[in-house]
Prior knowledge:
The protein is mostly beta strands and 782 residues long. The chain contains eight helices and 39 strands. The strands form seven sheets. The protein has a 22-stranded antiparallel β-barrel. Strands 3-9-10-7-8 form a five-stranded mixed β-sheet. The longest helix has 15 residues, at 3-17. The protein is globular, with a radius of gyration of 26 Å. Residues 1-31 and 748-759 have low confidence and may be disordered.
Amino acid sequence: MTLNKFLMTTASAAIILSTPAFAQEEAAAEAPTRESALERVLGTVTVTATKKADVEDVQTVPVAMTAYNADTLDALNVTTLESLSYSSPNVSLDDVGTARGTANFAIRGLGVNSSIPSIDPAVGVFVDGVYLGVNSGVVVDMFDLDSIEVLRGPQGLLFGRNTTGGAIVVNTANPTDEFSFKARTSIDGPVDGDRGGANANFQAIVSGPLIENVLNGKFGVSYNTDDGYFKNLHNGENHGELQSVTYRGALEFMPTDALTFLGKLEYTDARSDGPSGKNTAYFDRDNFDMSINNPGFGENETILGSLRTDLDVDFGNGVITNIFGYRKYESTSGADIDATPMTLFHSNAEFNQEQYSNELRYAGTFDKLDLTTGLYYFEQTLDYTEIRNLPTTRPPTLPASIPWGFYGGGTLDHTVWGAFANIDYSITDKLVANVGVRYSVEEKSGDVIYIRPRLPCSVVEGTCSATGNNALISLITGGTVQEPNGFRDSNEWKNWTPKVGFQYFWNDNVQSYAHYTKGFRSGGYNFRITDLPIFQQFVTQTGSLGFDEEEVDSYEVGFKSQSDDGRIQVNGAVFMTEVGNMQREVNTAGSSGVVQNIINTTDATIVGIEFDGRIALTDTLLGSFNVGFMDAGYDKVFFDLNADGVVDREDLNLDLPRVPPMTYGFGLMKDINLGSAGAIIARASYQHRDRIAYTDSNFGWIQDADMVDVDITWETPFQGLTASLYGKNLLDEVQIGNDTQLPFPGPNSTGQNYSYPVDPAGGTFQPLKKGRLLGLELTYVY
């Protein structure tokens, strides 16, 4: 930690510790009874991720996880899942940046380095029990939350495929059986005068009984308007504008004491600029300068619904649960990929996704045995069009009357069937055996349309297909092109996902566990095939038109401990993850811009250690910490990662992408009771993440980050009214969503002093994230 970073963090903590003590002493005799912020945060945090009949204390489950209840989420000022990116060890919950709202999550070094929508995630996201089938539209405004659970390590047994890195479980708040109302408004923006404008948000939720003891209801709305944080040096205008609105409704119907129906429906409409990209051939990595001649755009609509049915049964004193889910996501977007004031590489996209899912499960207890078992079904359809504007590639002989553009993409039908069973058996009062297995059958059927010059068409609208013609190519070549326009293919995968482990309770407050589990990340097809000769070479080498599954074997030993009064909590884990047939997006240069190939490239091993916990230092001061270490290396490489023409030790010695060697952080929370004047709750946190390689060649990389956040909240004397002053990223760290190499000529950047290879002549496309923010928030709860 550099001196200025240490001083900034220490100063933030000093704000907490130096709040006038006399106010607390004067208020002691006058203050009404109130539950302090520490008591609310230190309360038992229950989790739903084990899918048992009753929710469990996070400290009793044999899973490495960080759980946030509603009070903690409020204290951390969580607005999106990305807000939690730096609050757990070995966890990165980043937005990829290329298409706004697209998750690029990685846990324990397993994640996705792409915005291609046909690639399945390595970290599964579940909202109210519904799995989100694609990464698109995941990093959006979230409000009225009950809890978020971040599970580290493969979760294939209970959550299925595409959770090889872990799972994020989001539980929105349910309707209440008493009337309640909550309103929140906030405004924040950059402090630096050479940046853009303010970001404002308003939320309101009303909840209560519609028919007492029979029907409860809830309705909420969230509106966000952002003037754009960045200043586009090309025209002096703000960039990063956003307007979005979310409506959420819920009904809870309780016809009998044993039967409950809970329905939730959410609609989101968002309009924004495209990515705020910078090109490192023109601007230094460590500033917020950008200059683009195409502001881009993003428009999307999302419908997310779920219907949960719970029936209490006498059999095993258990519960039968059914969760039906539906999601429809439609988006169009445009981006300046060359990230310069020239038109070298601009791209538009259309993407539609529709999914249905259903999980039927039973959970019950039979003496020493806890059983959870269920059936699962999931289906989705994807339709994707990509349009590339690359004017410098236009043949000089092509008549001006003929438009020039690259069009392609793909469609996909995706179905998964699954069955699972998990048993926790108490061998003794202290020793519990954990045994489970999941069987899944997955089918994918896709049409892939090569992205190449052709007359304007749309995959989404059905005017661009794998069996269509090559009209524009034929015009260019005089009608001699006989190459296929794309392909149609299907595949099926069947897998067993076992888990075997033991859990030992040393006493009521200390437990340790050890387990082995397996996970799979789905195979599939690349919707972004832009270089046919390279693709055909891959097909010849692999014998397949798509890419195969990624397989993970994970071994973990951990412990969880807390004091009798819950004021001290320390958890830790050691893990080893063996990855077979690792899926990677390998980037190379080509005539159609960046060539992005999805390939099974390597076998690898990742080992790590992580600790996290909290300590109540006094009755009014709470400290928290987390630290994670990872060491990763390739065991076998069967693809040329660094594009030097051979597969050799140079490839074997490359760093695995998305694996920071170290993440760590600490925080302080202070609660000061002011008696008749209310109370002050102050929080400061510091988080560090080491630099990581972003691409397999290690040519793309993301710099390290040191994040300092501060929040000072005044619980006013007016019942239910609070006011907060907060600061985020106070060190003004430059963060980016990705680091994609560009093939275009530009200034020579070899004079820049980087440990990784210098940027290419054309630079790299880096979507910027916001820097330093200061904000004010008002909340009223009735």
